[in-house]
Amino acid sequence: MLYRDNMINQHLLKEPVFSFWLNQHNRGGEGGEIIFGGVDPNHYQGMHTYVPVTQKGYWQIDMGDVLIKGKPTGFCKDGCSAIVDSGISFLAGPRNVIAQINSAIGAQGLIKEQCNMLVNTFGHNIFGLLSAAIDPKIICPIIAFCFSDGKRDVRSDGVSAVSATTPNCVICKTIVNFMHKAIAGNLTQETIIKLAGNLCALVPNPVGESTIDCARLSSLPTISFTIGGKEFQLSPYEYIIKTDEGDKEQCISGFVALDIPPSGGPLWILGDLFMRRYHTIFDYGNLRVGFAEAA
């Protein structure tokens, strides 16, 4: 931040610090506040927990374990580093760890969601077409779930169909082929559709954008990070992002995968979702970062 350095060099700041408060309650329409040279005591409660910066330029700190529902996971048994960054909205971490966290909170990848939608909405149609000896290769285009010629179109229900090479189209073809073989094995329609649903459950745990049933938020576990020997908790209402898509509210996991090469990683990024819960002081003079409960 050149403007920060210039302000310090020109002695325009009372203290060589800057602090972040991000409004988690949306009171009065304020999005948040950054203060150069000080801290607003009205925006936090209690004392700040300070940890030293381990990598200059990135506000990188050492982090202890990650806890799920208060229980240690051992993810950071060999040590973890984290960057505190208001420039990212999510909580980013190593791919294998994010997959385990999303599995623990019941996050469902968008591909898995599309697979379930396909089986639940079109399962009976697919069975009927296969039973009528329709070529399996043209069933996905027939139900307008995807198009074999790579075009993109819109189904009669207004949902945009996808090209033959997209993951959703590949899933459609997989389900159709599975059901085709099951019919040849003389299984009943209900049994085949149930087995196809079980096939969707085998889609790997999500590491990218993944969804949560909004009705389940109150039952999801607390996720915590140990920093400076203190546990910093995030409730599901703090690590789940709610969005409005048409008339339907959608809930998305705030945990996303970010694999940093060994030369600089593994690394976590504690973005806005963390900083909304915890008021953050960047102490430039003492090369440390402090966290306190936001008010």
Describe this structure as you would to a colleague:
The structure is a single chain. The protein is of the alpha+beta class and 295 residues long. The protein has helices at residues 2-9, 95-104, 110-131, 139-142, 167-184, 189-200, 236-239, 272-277, and strands at 17-22, 32-36, 44-52, 60-63, 66-68, 71-72, 80-84, 91-93, 108-109, 146-147, 162-163, 210-212, 223-227, 230-234, 240-245, 248-253, 255-257, 267-270, 278-283, 288-294. It has a five-stranded antiparallel β-sheet. A five-stranded mixed β-sheet has the order 4-7-18-8-17. A hairpin with a 2-residue loop joins strand 15 and strand 16. Helix 3 (110-131) crosses helix 5 and helix 3 packs antiparallel against helix 6 (189-200). The longest helix has 22 residues, at 110-131. The protein is elongated and about 80 Å long. Residues 110-150, 165-206 form the Saposin B-type domain. Residues 1-292 form the Peptidase A1 domain.
Key features?
295 residues, alpha+beta, 5-stranded antiparallel beta sheet, 5-stranded mixed beta sheet, 30% strand, elongated
Topology readout:
Elements: H1 2-9, E1 17-22, E2 32-36, E3 44-52, E4 60-63, E5 66-68, E6 71-72, E7 80-84, E8 91-93, H2 95-104, E9 108-109, H3 110-131, H4 139-142, E10 146-147, E11 162-163, H5 167-184, H6 189-200, E12 210-212, E13 223-227, E14 230-234, H7 236-239, E15 240-245, E16 248-253, E17 255-257, E18 267-270, H8 272-277, E19 278-283, E20 288-294
Parallel strand pairs: 7-18, 8-17, 10-11
Antiparallel strand pairs: 1-2, 1-19, 3-20, 4-7, 5-6, 5-13, 8-18, 9-12, 12-16, 13-14, 15-16, 19-20
Helix pairs in contact: 3-5, 3-6, 5-6
